[in-house]
Amino acid sequence: xxxxxxxxxxxxxxxxxxxxxxxxxxxxxxxxxxxxxxxxxxxxxxxxxxxxxxxxxxxxxxxxxxxxxxxxxxxxxxxxxxxxxxxxxxxxxxxxxxxxxxxxxxxxxxxxxxxxxxxxxxxxxxxxxxxxxxxxxxxxxxxxxxxxxxxxxxxxxxxxxxxxxxxxxxxxxxxxxxxxxxxxxxxxxxxxxxxxxxxxxxxxxxxxxxxxxxxxxxxxxxxxxxxxxxxxxxxxxxxxxxxxxxxxxxxxxxxxxxxxxxxxxxxxxxxxxxxxxxxxxxxxxxxxxxxxxxxxxxxxxxxxxxxxxxxxxxxxxxxxxxxxxxxxxxxxxxxxxxxxxxxxxxxxxxxxxxxxxxxxxxxxxxxxxxxxxxxxxxxxxxxxxxxxxxxxxxxxxxxxxxxxxxxxxxxxxxxxxxxxxxxxxxxxxxxxxxxxxxxxxxxxxxxxxxxxxxxxxxxxxxxxxxxxxxxxxxxxxxxxxxxxxxxxxxxxxxxxxxxxxxxxxxxxxxxxxxxxxxxxxxxxxxxxxxxxxxxxxxxxxxxxxxxxxxxxxxxxxxxxxxxxxxxxxxxxxxxxxxxxxxxxxxxxxxxxxxxxxxxxxxxxxxxxxxxxxxxxxxxxxxxxxxxxxxxxxxxxx
Length: 637
Hints:
Layout: H1 14-19, E1 27-31, E2 36-37, H2 42-52, E3 57-61, H3 70-73, E4 81-85, H4 91-95, H5 121-132, E5 138-141, H6 143-147, E6 152-154, E7 159-161, H7 164-168, E8 172-174, H8 179-190, E9 204-209, E10 222-224, H9 228-233, H10 235-249, E11 256-261, E12 264-268, H11 277-284, E13 291-292, H12 303-308, E14 311-313, E15 315-316, H13 327-331, E16 336-337, H14 340-350, E17 359-360, E18 362-364, E19 374-375, H15 378-383, E20 398-399, H16 403-413, E21 420-421, H17 444-455, E22 461-466, H18 470-476, H19 481-498, E23 504-510, H20 517-529, E24 537-539, H21 547-554, H22 570-578, H23 585-597, H24 601-608, H25 611-636
Parallel strand pairs: 1-3, 1-4, 4-5, 5-8, 10-11, 14-18, 17-21, 22-23, 23-24
Antiparallel strand pairs: 2-13, 6-7, 8-9, 9-12, 11-12, 15-16, 19-20
Helix pairs in contact: 2-8, 10-21, 16-17, 17-19, 20-22, 20-24, 23-24
Cofactor: [4Fe-4S] cluster
Keywords: 4Fe-4S, Iron, Iron-sulfur, Metal-binding, S-adenosyl-L-methionine
Binding site for [4Fe-4S] cluster: 318, 322, 325
């Protein structure tokens, strides 16, 4: 294997900066993740964009914040600004389980080691920089900054926090996917505009003195939400704020949002329109090495990189709008897709990787099967305020054709160096059920599903029905469980036709707002009846900028302001989770006693009855039903 020159990566050290012949840096990025030069890692994307605009850029990855702060000083002071990100995950989600237990590993660190980033990393890094270099502007971004840009509930402290701009002292925040605002910002600073004076760029947020008048830019209208101080006193006002923020974040012609915070005014400029195919291609076609920086070789593999190094991300965004999910809050509800040419170019790059053995692990995106899907008439999308394109029903204006995706699968399959290309991302199964998705006039969904099941399933297929209770599913913004049953039937028929044995792996969530304990017992019984012993169990975590987080904190739905019950105590959450494990002997007595206490002995019988006894009861039931039918017919005569 030929060693690549160190200058193929963005510099991490003073020595690497000097190798490029630079005596000064324009921008320095501070990141909570190790530096992996790959388009799936935000720090690499932002770094490469800054480089492509002609700036001298270096990265400080996972700096030590506990010592004499030498990592923050080693590259000196940048000419224009510092960029700060906690990494690809919110640092608190990265550090703690749903039960607030400290995790023992970190997927974005060499060797999977924990402890290489602080809690609230964006705030900690920014405060250090402001202390060391008070005259240098700091720009924050990434998912942690994006989802904490306005007053938000912090599950780990169990209280409302103001905008991360207020707590961190940063000069500007870029929210969402940062390519478009970042390029605008870079062009302005290159023209001599100080970063901390920029006010007219879409998709940025900043604080200004409350006494200062708002600037008039781009014919934006302004909507004011309840102040941070009012939210602290009134949970309903906090909940009502969320609806405004979510709606404006997903509009193409959005309003500017303002919120008072102490003696400041928080200003959130409207987002950019979703990136076009050409813009997506430019971002993915930057000169990534597609590998971790060589400095990590002796520290062990980086788990998140190992998982995606032979995968291809074909699109961004998700129009599902699920109540518990942050994807649409950060990436947007409109789908931004790459061109087929760009995707096939990445296939050509992957097959040249020295460790590639012929298998692509994922052809996907946030949801595997939303590639190229958008409104048939974009003028309708332009006016749309709905947070989801498929809840409560699929929008008649949404083009859900799977043909472009099927064609890419076939082209990747035909590549001479690819033995097999799998779909590892979760499949949005409801798009493939004709009873739910009425937009399948030409049968393209069936062609896609046949292609998927016969060619692209790596042993098992992941789908996420999330629950079986229709009431809970409505709160989740997910379709009725009956559609999962129809999907499973369709899936099983294709498997039988081709003599395949690839189990479905359904994902479910316990303790979600709107879910009662009996609902979880029923979920366990229904999935048992379908032959599942659930492995993938997720306890609900209220993450900022989600409907479910607002319900968890305020007790009401932000769109109706009506009460919704939520399991909150450790005991309540554990009780719900226990039902997943009905097949384990140590849970059987607990389940029987608990369900009798809840006056649901019927569920106890369904859950604890052996499969053999259930089969006998089914035969007896069918026999009794047949007898009853005969008697009915006799008396009819």
